[in-house]
Amino acid sequence: MAQILKATDDSLELCKQALESSKVIAVPTETVYGLAGNALDDVALSSIFKIKGRPLFNPLIIHIDCVESAEKYATFNSLASQLVDEFWPGPLTIILPKKGIIPDLVTANLDSVAIRCPQNPTFLKLLKALSFPLAAPSANPFGYVSPTTAQHVKTSLGDKIDIILDGADCTIGIESTIVDLRDPNKPKILRPGPISKEALEGLTNVKFEQKRASDEKKLRGPGMLKSHYSPKSPLEIIPLNSLKDLISSGNKLKFAFIFQKRPKETTLEEQPNIYWLSKEGSTLEIAHNLYQLLRTVDTLNYQKIYIEAINENEGLKAALKDRLSKAASK
Ligand code: TXA
Ligand code: MG
Predict the structure, then answer these.
(1) Which ligand has the shortest distance to the CA of 96?
(2) How far is CA 326 from CA 149, 223, 300, in A?
């Protein structure tokens, strides 16, 4: 069973040794926990796919400690440089033409590579101590909800790895924004996330195409497939009014009901199968709590989980809407 290691110098040394001997460990990031291995080592890479149960055709993100490291692995253009100057370290993953040193296993034989410089201080410290980048998908079994605490990783992958490096709860709580920057004149958002379309366009004055749900089937990565991030209990997204109507038509304890913010009606608040993602509706708080709450509710074996719809298409709400619809589709 995996050990959860507090982030001390000794445990960072243990992590370093494990990674240098082709082992795979779980690491904290500001978005979600990652399942990390040496991105230049086929043995480590094969283990990542095996432990996660992930198909080999789905490429991995490599994590580096600074822009200079990233330039060893991908060919930058000026748009990419501008974006990483502003948003790294942070929740932005960029896709660029890869350099030859990156193994085909990382990129699923594509000629591009996904790169991110994370913000979590524990993870950054570990990356700085290493002489190679770390490939890391989210540390969940393929298709399940991403982990935002060390305990989440232990619950679902604890029997498959030895070390979980604890870097506290993920501050953001949903996966990074992924942008395809191979053509700097036509950048595309492949996965909406914490760095919004508005923020990307505001900085660069370039229009970013947003991949739509209907394009998703054509894409190869599960981050872009509709059925992903799903709890085991069926999840249905419904508007706030319908959620309230459903409850008032006779609260059925076999169902869980999730609100975006704490309902004002005390009659609702007191019922055991009623949950909320935030106290007052703060988007940051909703993102932070979403996966955590979905995982908790999922352990309680409800026949069905009803969750309040997110309607907005701007900012972080766009990313939350995307994650909800992926969690709800089977
Ligand atoms: O926040 C995050 O990005 C987290 C943390 C651990 O960094 N990682 C993460 O990785 O979400 P993963 O593997 O769960 O999702 C990465 C997505 C996948 O959908 C994959 O298909 C896509 O990135 N991807 C990776 N390389 C790509 C490439 N060269 N072209 C297109 N998509 C790529
Ligand atoms: Mg994932």
Answers:
(1) 1
(2) 21, 9, 21
Tell which CATH architecture fits domain 235-327: 3-Layer(aba) Sandwich (3.40)
Mutate to test the pocket of ligand 1, among 48, 61, 215, 326 (most ligand atoms within 8 A of CB): 61
The ligand placed nearest to the CA atom of residue 287 is 1
Whose alpha carbon is nearest atom 29 of ligand 1?
113
Q: How far is Cα 172 from Cα 153, in angstroms, rounded to an integer?
A: 17
**What residue ranges line ligand 1, CB within 6 angstroms?**
29, 31-32, 34, 58-61, 93, 95, 107, 110, 112-114, 116, 136-138, 175-176, 178, 190, 221-224
| Domain boundaries 3-210, CATH class | alpha beta
Q: What pTM was computed for the model?
A: 0.95
pLDDT tens per residue, range 137-161: 999 999 999 999 999 999 999 999 9
Task: Name the residue ranges covered by the structural domains of the chain.
Answer: 3-210, 235-327
188 pairs with which residues across the strands?
180, 209
pLDDT digits (tens, 9 = 90+) for 67-99: 999 999 999 999 999 999 999 999 999 999 999
